Task: structure prediction
Amino acid sequence: MAVRTGAQFLDSLRAMTDGREFWMDGEKIGDVTTDPRFAGAARTLAGLYDMQHDPDLSDVMTYVDEDTGERHPRSYQIPRSMEELQARSKMVKHWADATLGMFTRTPDYMNIYLAVSAGSAAEYGGYQNHDFGQNMRDLYQYMRANDYAMAHSLNHPQTDRSRPVEDQDQDLACKITKETDAGIYISGARTVTTLAAYIEEVSVFPSPHKPVSGEAGDYSFAVVIPVTTPGTKFLFRPPVVPGGGASPEDHPLASRFDETDAMMVFDNVFVPWERVYAYRDVEACNTLSARIGHSAHLYDQVSLRCIAKAEFMVGLALTICHSMQIEGFSHIANWLADMMSQLELLKAAHTAAVAGAGPNKYGVWQADAGPFTAMRRLFPDMIANMNDKVTQMAAGGLVTAPSTADFSSEIGDDVRLYMQSANADAETRVRLMRLAFDATMSGFAGRQLLYERFFGGDPVRNAHRQVNGYDKQPLMDKVAAFLMRSAADTDQTKKHAAE
Ligand SMILES: Cc1cc2nc3c(=O)[nH]c(=O)nc-3n(C[C@H](O)[C@H](O)[C@H](O)COP(=O)(O)OP(=O)(O)OC[C@H]3O[C@@H](n4cnc5c(N)ncnc54)[C@H](O)[C@@H]3O)c2cc1C
Result:
């Protein structure tokens, strides 16, 4: 099953129903493929897996491993050339386009993470006789062979952010509690884990920015375990879809793309050594991602998703404007031009990042992370701005569009008459407005924006890292050179005046 179908993916989710502990709305969740709070996103993911079997897309979505002759999902390919890096981008964009950039954590994200981690596995080091690099290679082979999906959780609970995790009154963060010849035991909680309802394995890796101090070792580990591991619980937030599983026409995005987020709780969970990738090593945990170049790979995926989302938003704005003929007003043209310019800059940043790609010391090709860092910094405000402009274009239409059920009720004729606009019949316009509402104003839209701001870490602390890591001196040298030139010119001018 090296490349799975949607049906095989759904079968796998069903098979885990009894073995795993998912909680939402005060109850234990059963089959996520049929529970209306989860089923919409499960169907969407199944559709993405089916794309891997579309004969027209076969060479885009999958690749043949030259060593084994076997076909695998493209996102699991370790890129060893510019062509392979670009081929991966093409695959990512297909999934991003299929989900309008709104399924924020499609499985390719962590597949890419696994592939490049295995490609640079020597960076994982080891502990006593345990070779973490080999563990990572084995995990990659296992995940790729089954085309499994993985989610990850990096952060500790928000108990008291004024103190380091090892120095809290309440010791709630997940930590190592015991070590044996067979493995380790962990207990405590980890926060946001997106996609957790639709995966086979979950990665409990450290945030790379832990302050180094005496007791931090207990919290500095990396493991990957099956979601069915005894003692592991997933606490899901309520769905953003009103009523749990509302009509796809009235909530067209939320009903398809609410991938859910969960907190994970571990109660004396046993992890065999084969599934450990870092152990009591604060320094290794803090530097691992940078040494492997995870950001450059993950943001390759993220940036393409952001481009897909921005393309959708520009298309949505244009369609709304055309439907009621407002594109001729100069302020609307101004807003459209801003949105189009932002989209073009996003595309240019991705092109520039790939153009600057090169191999790391293990021959794994990665894009230039610089343009991706710029995108991470600017995209949240760009997309917030696009949302805002779409709401100002659609204005009252957003809050008067009724539910589509009204068309088949006794007020159907009124709705058909008064909801039409110059270039759209009432049914098209209502569906367009429901789509715009879901994209910009709904609970789904709120979660999307929060995701864009935070999924890559706290933007405030990221800003410090960006400023600290930036190559500042050449820019300051330019200013210093001008000041020197200017001072010399002034002296010269004074000298001439005195003569
Ligand atoms: C929708 C969504 C999905 C996500 N999915 C995932 C996922 O799948 N996997 C994953 O690992 N993570 C995920 N994240 C979590 C993300 O990594 C964190 O949100 C991010 O790292 C910030 O941590 P926090 O949410 O705990 O906020 P906190 O760190 O608690 O910050 C809260 C506020 O306090 C400020 N603050 C706190 N501490 C400091 C400090 N030391 N210095 C300055 N300011 C501080 C922050 O600026 C912020 O304004 C997701 C987040 C969101 C919102």
Notes: The longest strand covers residues 183-194. Residues 294-323 form the longest helix (30 residues).
